[in-house]
Each structure stands twice: as structure tokens, then as C-alpha cells.
Automatic annotation (TrEMBL):
Role: Member of the two-component regulatory system NtrB/NtrC, which controls expression of the nitrogen-regulated (ntr) genes in response to nitrogen limitation. Phosphorylated NtrC binds directly to DNA and stimulates the formation of open promoter-sigma54-RNA polymerase complexes.
Keyword vocabulary terms for this entry: Activator, ATP-binding, Cytoplasm, DNA-binding, Nitrogen fixation, Nucleotide-binding, Phosphoprotein, Repressor, Transcription, Transcription regulation, Two-component regulatory system
Domain Sigma-54 factor interaction stretches: 143-372
Residues the record lists as 4-aspartylphosphate modifications: D57
Organism whose genome encodes this protein: Noviluteimonas caseinilytica
Domain Response regulatory: 7-122
Name by which UniProt lists this protein: DNA-binding transcriptional regulator NtrC
Length: 469
């Protein structure tokens, strides 16, 4: 039965659906194959044995999904089959369930919900045929650091990864808090389950509750279908709550209760959901001070802060700057398909002297600019200065673009152009997306969360053909 007992198959004649779903599943660490019709999937079943799980569309040229379901159930009765269809009438859904479908997904569906469904459908670790137990490959996420503070931190990560304790990671913006959370997950017995990150500050307060705990269809205006929250998505794995200090008071109360009880209701739901989630929280704020002022619940702080890991700012570990810079420059050149570059000695000294208010992220972004801008293979001080001047930090004036936009709009209106709004909106989307994707080096999920958008929205705006990491 070779390796297919650990793979997920997608049967759909729509290439875009296969691509988007496969990419989301791969990001969650699964091995995935796509088939454009039932015949090919059945042939593979004969040759390679059953996969761990199968998604199928209903209406396809040739045999339809329900016939496929029937044949699959005869050949591999245990195989969980998720039926997807744009036709959500009772006949189709009932037909699917009667045929033994594990779940029915109405198209278009939420990719995160599909990933969460897979986590639920597949047997727990160690039982039977489970999916490939690999954390998603995250290029460039290896923590670099030779300074005593970082070495001590790495030792703590190794020790803490094994215990399911809550961890609070503190440190300025861009110091690597998320990277540490990922390392804690990757080294833990939960590594084969999802790592789900949520930036509390990036989501509007009124959406945060349903983002965390999910909602049922009809729970509020605009809730057209069920949404599986991050807690459920992270079941068995790790939930990373970034910028926890920005969480509104009412949600702090709810979070505390969920952490204490390990169960909750989706917004507007009646089904009690039990989850097993390790929570890792992060903040750049002084939560003790916020708690003393009554702006953060002290009891929630105690619960999150079972162990605290502090990331020192980069200016306090300048010995790490050269290694980080060389690593980022090499990675950027590779990704840009440019020849490898190196920093001259004087340039490294200049980098060490910089005070890095944006910490490692600022250094990483600077290296990307240098890789793109510096003409020679050896990067000198002058190249660095140019890249530092080009830093968005140095030139951002929030009012600039509004004024420019107003000038543009006035000129176009005076010129008699119509449909300005659509054009401006498309440009705005494009610019925001490009900036976020550049910042996250092409990682869509993260780019979406930086923009406060759902990943599906980003995927839709980009279209399935755009290159992604
Ligand atoms: N020690 C490190 N080694 C290698 N890369 C690092 C290190 N620390 C941070 N980075 C990189 O710097 C960037 C910022 O890191 P990360 O997102 O983890 O910071 P953060 O503290 O969570 O930031 P924020 O508080 O703004 O969310 C990432 O691209 C990360 O890969």
C-alpha cells in the first residue's frame, strides 16, 4: 500500500479548486495528490491503495462524485470522504451522507475550515493510517543566535517544548516571538498537529470572538455559513496569540473561561466544543503594568504566564547581527534569483552600530532591499546607507498618500473619467497585498492576517495562478 496511506487525495475537474485546496493542505503539513476525474482516482486506488482521506467534487465529467463515493466505500470502507459541491440542495447533501460521506462542504468553502476538518477526520497520532506527520516546511524559520541570551533561550525552548505548559513570550516588535512560538510547537509532541497563529491586534474587536471561537450560520448579520474558529483549528496543536495585550476586556474574560474549562460554544452555537490546545501568547507590551492599571486581567495573565520567555532587542545582542545579516542576504539573493552577495567588513560594522528599532525584522527587510538594490557582489557602507535611506520607516508619512490620492482623484474627475472607485480600489488592494506579501516573503496566510483579511480573501484577490511560497 506504499505511501498513499498517509496522503490526501483531491478529485475535482476544476484545477483552481485542486490548486487552492492542495496548497492549503500542504501548508498544514499534509502530502496531497490531485485527480481531475473519478476514473484516475479509482485507477490510483487499485495501484497504490487507499489514501488517508479523500476530497471529491460531485459534478464532474465522467463518473460523478457520488458514484465515486460508492465505489470507494466498497473498496475502502474506512476511508473518510469529504464531498464538495456548489449544489447544496437536500438531495445532494443527503445523497452524500447516505453514501457514507464523512462530511459535506458547500462550495465555495472556507479553506481553514477544510484544513480543520481534515484534522478532525484523521485518526489521532499513532492510530492507523494518519497523514504525513511533518510540520509544514517553513523555509528560513531556523532561529539564529550565538549570544549567551539566545543560547539560554534555545535551551529553554528545548526544555519547555515537551511540557504542555502555557508560555508567554515577551519582546519588542520583530524580535522573533512568533519564530520562538513555532519552534516550541515544532519541538513538541504536538508537532504533527496544526500550529495556528492569530494576531489579536490585526483583527477588528467585533470579529475577534468569532475568529477565535467560530460561529454558526446565521449567528449574526453576514454570517452566511458556519465558521470554524482558531481554537478548533488548533485542536491537538498549538494556538499562538500574538499581541495579546490588545485583546478587548470582554474577550479576555471569555478566553480565561475557555482556558480554564477547555470547552466553549461557537458564537450562536449550541454544541459544546471540547478542544485540546496549547496556548502560546506573545506581547510587546508590559502586561504586568497593564494588569496593575486594570487594563489586562491579572488572572488571565497568570494563566498565560506559566512560563515566560523574553527576547532581548537586537541592539542588546549585536554579536548576532553579522550572522543574521549574512543569512538574510543569502536567502534574499536566492529568492530573487540574484548572484550571492556578501557584506564588506565595514558594512557589517555599520550594521552592528545601527540601533534597530524594528529589530530582526528590520534587519531582514533591509537585507532584502540590499539584495535587490546593491549593484556589486560585495555590499559596502554606501550601499547600506542607500538601503537604509530607502527604508519605509524613514519615509512613511501617513498623510502623504492620502494627499496624493486626493490629487489623483481630483485630476481624474476633472478629466471626466468614470469608474474611478473601482480603479482606485483595485490599486489599493494591489498595493496593500504586495506590501504585505513582501513583508511576509510571500506567505499568504500571514500576509492576510497582517492586513486583517481572511486568507480566502487574499487568495481570491490574487487568483490561483499567482506564485506563492
Ligand atoms: N533569531 C532569529 N533568527 C532568524 N530569523 C529571525 C530571528 N528572529 C526573528 N527572525 C525573523 O525576523 C522576522 C520577525 O520575526 P517574528 O515575526 O517572529 O517577530 P515578532 O517578535 O513575532 O514580531 P511582532 O511582535 O511584530 O509580531 C521573521 O521573518 C523572522 O523569521
Amino acid at each position: 500500500m506504499a505511501n498513499d496511506a498517509r496522503r490526501i487525495w483531491i478529485v475535482d475537474d476544476d484545477r483552481a479548486v485542486r490548486f487552492v485546496l492542495a496548497t492549503a493542505l500542504r501548508e498544514a503539513g499534509h502530502a496531497v495528490d490531485g485527480f481531475e476525474n473519478a476514473r484516475d482516482a479509482l485507477a490510483a486506488l487499485r495501484d497504490r491503495g487507499a489514501p488517508a482521506l479523500l476530497f471529491t467534487d460531485v459534478r464532474m465529467p465522467g463518473e460523478d462524485g457520488l458514484t465515486l463515493l460508492d465505489k470507494l466505500k466498497q473498496a475502502a470502507p474506512q476511508l473518510p470522504v469529504i464531498v464538495m459541491s456548489a449544489y447544496t440542495d437536500i438531495a445532494s447533501t443527503a445523497g452524500a451522507f447516505r453514501g457514507g460521506a464523512y462530511e459535506f462542504l458547500s462550495k465555495p468553502f472556507d479553506l481553514d475550515a477544510a484544513v480543520a476538518l481534515v484534522a478532525r477526520a484523521l485518526p489521532e497520532a499513532g492510530e492507523g493510517a494518519a497523514v504525513a506527520r511533518v510540520a509544514p516546511a517553513m523555509p528560513g524559520t531556523e532561529l539564529i543566535g550565538e549570544t549567551p541570551a539566545m543560547r539560554a533561550l534555545f535551551r529553554s525552548i528545548g526544555r519547555l517544548a515537551q511540557a504542555p505548559l502555557s508560555v508567554l513570550i515577551t519582546g519588542e516588535t520583530g524580535t522573533g516571538k512568533e519564530l520562538v512560538a513555532r519552534a516550541l510547537h515544532r519541538e513538541s509532541p504536538r508537532a504533527h498537529r496544526p500550529f495556528v497563529a492569530l494576531n489579536t491586534a490585526a483583527i477588528p474587536a467585533e470579529l475577534l470572538e468569532s475568529e477565535l471561537f467560530g460561529h454558526e450560520a446565521g449567528a449574526f448579520t453576514g454570517a452566511t455559513k458556519r465558521h470554524v474558529g482558531r481554537f478548533e483549528q488548533a485542536d491537538g496543536g498549538t494556538l499562538f496569540l500574538d499581541e495579546i495585550g490588545d485583546m478587548p476586556a470582554s474577550l479576555q474574560t471569555r478566553l480565561l473561561r475557555v482556558l480554564a474549562e477547555g470547552e466553549f460554544f461557537r458564537v450562536g452555537g449550541r454544541e459544546l466544543i471540547r478542544v485540546d490546545v496549547r496556548v502560546i501568547a506573545a506581547t510587546h507590551q508590559d502586561l504586568d503594568a497593564l494588569a496593575a492599571e486594570g487594563r489586562f486581567r491579572a488572572d488571565l495573565l497568570h494563566r498565560l504566564d506559566v512560563v515566560r520567555l523574553h527576547l532581548p532587542p537586537l541592539r542588546e545582542r549585536t554579536d548576532d547581527v553579522p550572522a543574521l545579516a549574512e543569512r538574510f542576504l543569502a536567502a534574499a539573493a536566492r529568492k530573487l534569483d540574484a548572484p550571492p552577495k556578501h557584506f564588506a567588513k565595514a558594512a557589517l560594522a555599520r550594521l552592528r552600530a545601527h540601533d534597530w528599532p524594528g529589530n530582526v525584522r528590520e534587519l531582514e527587510n533591509l537585507c532584502w532591499r540590499v539584495a535587490a538594490l546593491a549593484p556589486a557582489d560585495t555590499v559596502g557602507v554606501a550601499d547600506l546607507e542607500a538601503a537604509l535611506r530607502a527604508s519605509p520607516r524613514a519615509s512613511v508619512d501617513a498623510d502623504d498618500w492620502e494627499a496624493a490620492l486626493a490629487r489623483w482623484a481630483r485630476a481624474r474627475i476633472e478629466a471626466g473619467d468614470a469608474d474611478l472607485h473601482a480603479e482606485a480600489k483595485a490599486k489599493l488592494d494591489r498595493i496593500l497585498l504586495d506590501a504585505a506579501l513582501e513583508h511576509t516573503h510571500g506567505h499568504r496566510g500571514e500576509a492576510a492576517s497582517r492586513l486583517g483579511l481572511g486568507r480566502n480573501t487574499v487568495t481570491r484577490k490574487l487568483g490561483p495562478g499567482r506564485k506563492r511560497r
